Amino acid sequence: MLKPRLPVAAAMEFSRSDVVKDLDVTKRTSAKALMDQWRAGGGFTAKKLAVASDLLHRMVTDKSETVLLSFPAALMATGTRGVLRDLVKHKLVDAVVTTCGTLDHDLARLWEDYYAGSFDLDDRKLHQEGVNRLGNVLVPNTSYGEVLEAKLRPLLEEWYDSGAKHWGTRELCAKLGEWAGREANRDESLLYWAWKNGIPVYVPGPTDGSVGAQVWMVYQKHRDLRFDLLKDEQELSDLVFAAKRLGALMIGGGISKHHVIWWSQFRDGLDTVVYLTTAQESDGSLSGARVREAVSWGKVKEDAQWETVEGDASVLLPLLVADLFERLAKGET
């Protein structure tokens, strides 16, 4: 039987540090100041976010810990793209596992804009006008499929003609990041910074998006073109086995989350985990599964430190990372 994370209520002893304290936001307040207040007695999700803040800070400052970042693509269509990019730009993570749409949105937004909309717009009218709705973000066809096809097809043909015919997704992402470096606004791109900093990006489902569709279109002409996914898996295996300690910041679920915890189990599990999710666990989905469930699979160590924070990552992640940068700037260890 696993030991409970906290002693039963009857056995608990309280101190002044356990007292719930009221927030004071009447003064100019930074993300760190809020996190400090939540840490000192905030309730519900606020307290969880403060715990997650401590775990994330410890992960990135512990030089012996390899940090994996996983997230699905939707956030890259929002302003949260900048937060994810800055984690890579400042070398705060060692590898990224994501979905194909991340490549789509990161590259498309180098060339065209996405727009703020609403969850309540008329989707039939949007379709008639050639506008796609991603939650409350509006993505015109000209800003997505059309521009990606126009820009990527020649680049992918160029890469194939250079002799590259079997592509791992890490290699593809690095090449896309290198190509992004040709653009004047390259600093906006996560893929560019990943390439520049030598941080591998893996996409376990590479055909599930527009970039993958462009690769498929090149395949229509060159039938010897292949995705070598096993090459990626070998690299991930080597990465986790080489780690002295292994931590993960996982945002959302699906294949990107599972790939991180799947490979972690072969080295006896993750040591540190921060997980942000909006999914519920009652349906048994991986996205809804709390970190504690992964302990039963050996994907997270029994003595690991972890926190699951429920809520919208477009709100929680900027708070978490703003606090992290402030703590790093102050030299906290």
Please give the alpha-carbon distance between the first and last residues: 34 Å
Q: How does the major sheet shape up? A: 6 strands, parallel
Q: What structural category do the secondary elements indicate?
A: alpha/beta
Shape-level CATH architecture = 3-Layer(aba) Sandwich
Mean pLDDT: 93
Helix percentage: 40-55%
Strand content: 15-25%
In the CATH hierarchy, the third-tier topology is known as Deoxyhypusine Synthase
The CATH class:
Alpha Beta
Q: Which spans have pLDDT < 50 for at least 5 consecutive residues?
A: none
Strand order of the largest sheet: 7-2-1-9-10-11
Q: How many E-type strands?
A: 11
Radius of gyration equals: 21 Å
From the spread of the alpha carbons, the general shape counts as: globular
Looking at CATH, the homologous superfamily is Deoxyhypusine synthase
| Total count of helical runs of at least 4 residues | 13
Give the SSE string.
HHEHEHEHEEHEHHEHEHEHEHEH
Q: What number of domains?
A: 1
